[in-house]
Each structure stands twice: as C-alpha cells, then as structure tokens.
Design goal:
Length: 264
C-alpha cells in the first residue's frame, strides 16, 4: 500500500522556520549613547544576562536628554531602533533607563511585541506583594526630574517615597557630561547607592521593598538589600521575568518530542 501522502513524516516534524536575522536572542535592548564603564550587572554589559540579548544604540539619546529633557524629540528614533531589533529577531523590547517609562504606552502600541521600558513598571506589582502598612520606595538617579508624569506612566501613586543619588560623590558626577566619564570609582558608586537607599528607609520606615529606577544601580542591588534588610527589585529582575514569558522553560515532559520543531 502506498504511504498516505497527507500523513506528516518524521522529517516534517523537524522543520525550522525562518523570518529573522538572528535566532535565540528573544530580548532586544534599546540603549543610550554613553561612554562610562558598564560593569557586570549593568544591562548594557552582555555578560550580565543568562541568555543572549540584542542591542541597539538610539541616536542622540544621551542620559542628559532622556533624564533632564524627558527624552524630548526622541520617540521616533526609539520606535525606529526598536523596529530594527524586532526585524533582527527580538520578540520583546526593553529600555535601559527608567525614565523611558514615558514611552511605554506608545511603544507597546506601535511595535506589535511586548515592551518593558522601565523598572518602574514593577512598582504596582511589588506593592501588592507587601503586607498591610508597608509600601514601595523608589531609588532613582535624579529625584528632581522624576516627575508626576513619570509616576503616572508607570501607574505609581503620587505619594510614593523617592530617594536619589543626586547628593552623592561619584554616581551622578560621572554620568552626564559627554556621555559619561571614561573611568568611574566603583566603590564610591556603591557607597552613593547605599547612602541613598539607607536614607530612603530611615526617612520612610513604612517602606517594605525598594524598586531601583536606574539601570546602572543593578550591580549594587545585592549590597543595597543587605544594607537595608529589604527586597530590592531592578531592571535585571524585571527582564529575567520578562524573558521567562517569551521563552518558557521546556521541562521535557512526555509528549514534548512529538511537537513540531519551531525555532524562534
């Protein structure tokens, strides 16, 4: 008897499907034009991630312009850069500055893939995790510029406690001029972050968890948690969770081998 031509062959279950330029990197990260060192833990250091990522620098997106000028005139460059990452192979788009929360809704509307532009988007969720009488505190690079508009864009209550590294010795000093200093003192950076975090908890005893806005603070999150005794949530937590939804773990249960192979 001739084989049923409609029946799938073993080979047909192992077809790879194209449409991308790069495979296996689900996250595309939009990055600012900077020159300061990006140590492990910083999302712009590729060694930070336990999975491959794609990067795209957004033209003219300096830290000063994004933070101090609310990214004025940069929406279209961010859209264009994100579309390049998606065309390359990204299944989700991430920002590398918490102040980019202002672009969250517009990018989510225009890109056609999930978007996570700011660590601040975690604040409402973290607030739901805390016991009665406790609330989230925010640690930012610039309290002066973290406006009510930024908080609204992330769904954050206007009275949320905020502390910043503006009065520190090193963290902010090395960040802005000319895209940032080519050399920074990592120990002083950490001290500035810890000082700001400890002040946040001292001034607001009802803070039960900290959300770190600035992506450069991630290398110091562990030390911050130890110094304050509180859980700390940052862009690393957020993006690893985000990635887990884009690429759920395959536990290899019976029947998984019978599924059609589809590389993404």
């Amino acid at each position: 008897m001739a084989p049923d031509s409609a029946a799938p062959s073993a080979a047909s279950l192992r077809l790879a499907h194209g449409g991308k330029t790069v495979y296996g990197a689900r996250i595309g990260i939009l990055i600012l034009e900077t020159q300061y060192p990006r140590i492990p833990g910083d999302p712009v250091n590729a060694m930070t991630w336990p999975f491959p990522v794609l990067y795209k620098v957004v033209d003219n997106a300096s830290p000063a312009r994004v933070v101090e000028q609310r990214a004025a005139g940069l929406l279209e460059p961010f859209v264009a850069a994100a579309k390049e990452l998606i065309a390359m192979g990204a299944d989700g788009i991430v920002g590398n500055c918490g102040f980019l929360v202002l672009f969250q809704d517009e990018l989510a509307k225009r890109l056609g893939v999930p978007v996570a532009m700011s660590s601040l988007l975690q604040v409402p969720l973290v607030a739901r995790l805390l016991p009665p009488g406790k609330r989230v505190g925010i640690l930012t690079v610039n309290k002066t510029e973290l406006s009510a508009e930024h908080l609204r864009a992330a769904g954050i209550a206007a009275d949320t406690p905020v502390s910043s590294t503006e009065n520190g010795r090193e963290f902010n000093r090395t960040m802005y001029k000319g895209g940032g200093a080519p050399t920074v003192d990592v120990e002083l950076n950490e001290a500035d972050v810890l000082d700001a975090g400890i002040s946040l908890v001292r001034d607001h005893p009802d803070v039960g968890a900290i959300v770190v806005e600035c992506t450069r603070m991630v290398p110091y999150s562990r030390a911050l948690a130890e110094a304050t005794g509180l859980p700390v949530f940052d862009i690393y937590n957020f993006v690893t969770w985000f990635h887990a939804g884009l690429a759920p773990r395959d536990f290899g249960h019976p029947g998984s081998a019978a599924r059609p192979f589809r590389e993404r």
